[in-house]
Amino acid sequence: MGRVKRTLTSDHLAKTSRYLGYNRYPDISDRKAWGSLSDELQRKLIKAGEEAVEEPWTQLLISDFTEFGKSGNRVRFEDKYFPRRRKLNNLVMAECVENKGRFIDDILDGLYLILDETTWCLPPHTSYERDGAQERVPDVTRQIIDLFQAESGAEIAYTEYLLRPVFAEISPHISIYVNERLKERIFEPYMNQFFWWMGDGIQTMCNWTPWIVQNVLICALTREKGTFSEEEIKNFLQKAAVSCDYFLDEYGDDGGCNEGAQYYTHAGLCLFGCLELIDGATKEDSSRYAEIDDDGQVIVHDPGRKTADQACYETFAGIYNEPLIRNIANFIVKMYVGGGYYVNFADCSALAGGRTAREFLFGKAVGDETLASFAAEDFRRESDKEQIISSEINLFYHVMQAFAYDEMMAYPVCNNLAEDSWFESMGLMIARDKTYTLAAKAGDNGDSHNHNDVGSFTLYKEGRPFVIDLGVGTYTKKTFSDRRYELWTMQSQFHNLPTFIDRSADGGVDKAGDLSDSQRNGRLAFELGNDPAADAHNTHIVMQKDGKKYAAKDVLCLLGNTGKEPESWPERALLEMEISGAYAEKKVKSYKRKIALNKGDTVSPVVIKDNYEGSIPAYMSIMTYEKPEVVGNGNSNAAEGLSKNSFQNADGPCVIRVGDIGTITAVKGVKSVLIREFAITDQRLMSTWKHSVYRILFEMDEHAGEYELVLK
């Protein structure tokens, strides 16, 4: 979308008159507040702290840091970097609840280990320009604020804030050291240097913007009174507000996050973090979320809502009434399928994680009971460790979770279901009935964390994955390089899209021997996907290109019938588009796709209709999680020169059974079917897909021009 030059955050900040610190949550000295947490929660937090004591502190070596530059492996460093932070958070929460001092020595060990790290940046992020070359070893003379420099700053800042009274009794040098590190690594570079994620109106923003800004604000707004003047706090807030507005420029009015449901956690929710911190720092009344009334009951303040005796709450908090902010907040509900699955695309996983107090409080802030209830119900389904987010590295989130915990446990269930959605800003349709959840994507291939997937779709049946989007594997140096699209998960051939084979192009296929053009074509189709990196450079293989200009055109979304259909027709959701432009191949003149959910139709509930005009053969990929098998209307004779075990002719309609979940019927236009198994060996992919995935490759009849699949 084009730049709209939003000033939403800055406009609401301009309504405020005071610029204070942020202390809505109590430090350890407020025993009344910490004691108000339920006994159950306190037991869980103390247990997590006791378990953390038994874990060894990891040792970070410079060779761990330099490994990324040598091999592209970032996991070796991260597997030692993140456990320190998780352990420290669990220790701090346990001490705040118990207040006996038995975790303090371990806390100081962890705090000083992090303070003494040469840099808080991750190795892939040590570049001074966006997508620039990384430093092989940290440059201590010029600080870089990346995601985790900011996260680490927020962690030590909030640790010091929560335990400041205890540290003061031990030595003033603890807080002095923390403040010196924050000054060196956060405050001075933030106020005096430009980083691309701050925004300039030219570069596109992504989740880095609110994620980092939120953590810088945590650092600044939790400093002891007098550290910054009111004018200096104002400068922090104004600079943060401008960056938030640049981030909001990337959104359409529908609030769609083009990074997907998983990145909503770092995009929309970190935006909420920014707004919450600004709101809390611009009010005369610095009341906390949790207070105790005269009857001993916990009262959780609801930011964004004004009552007669809370007039001061309307200033900046009025931003929560903005439709854009409300739409960004409830995006996650619209993406939910069920059973932990979410509609996914780009680098997003289909298992996008559990919901927490952040979604809950965001829902309450914008007055969205469905979101608040959805978050609370999802939270209640989690394990004890997940309910106290013991693996989370942001300490601020731990405290938010603790002080919303008891209310979330008791929050009423809302039975409102997500309605069909059309996110015009990114060309995403989501449609549902009692059996199916269908998602289809038009858009372009210029998304943040992009995969080449214009025109692809996913389908869930009764909450189970039927037709899938793989997501992304473990991040390496290659993932964010100019070789990104050599990775199989990024390529259109591993999405639910056509691939074309041009045997007349130069290079790629050995034309020696007596094979006919058809046989050569079939051989390459049979080998398609064996070596995705080679496929990316094979001039015979035509896949989608990456970039914003490779986009769907003539897009039309219809949710519900137009009123012109016969009364007997089922209600439907339909997405139409022309996707040939995503391939940048003149021989692919036109490729029109229609994707429809016919609600309640038991004969043809989900229909894919394609019309192709071009001079090179098309092969349609359909990715499934369960094993597909041809079960009807295709003979068992293999095509000439191809494996009998995997390739079958389809004379007329061909029925493919996909595990025990359903069937895919090639109604027209299909010549043959090739089913391939792809093992899942990558750790990140294995967290979603517990076994192999499968690709059904349909050879389309080049004389037909019209192809139709029915899924049910």
Automatic annotation (TrEMBL):
Limits of the Heparinase II/III-like C-terminal domain: 418-496
Pfam families, sorted: Hepar_II_III_C
GO CC annotations, alphabetized: cell envelope
N-terminal signal peptide: none
UniProt xrefs under InterPro entries: Chondroitin_lyas, Hepar_II_III_C
Subcellular location: Cell envelope
Predominant place of localization: other
Molecular-function GO terms, alphabetical: lyase activity
Protein name per UniProt: Heparinase II/III-like C-terminal domain-containing protein
Species for this entry: Butyrivibrio proteoclasticus (strain ATCC 51982 / DSM 14932 / B316) (Clostridium proteoclasticum)
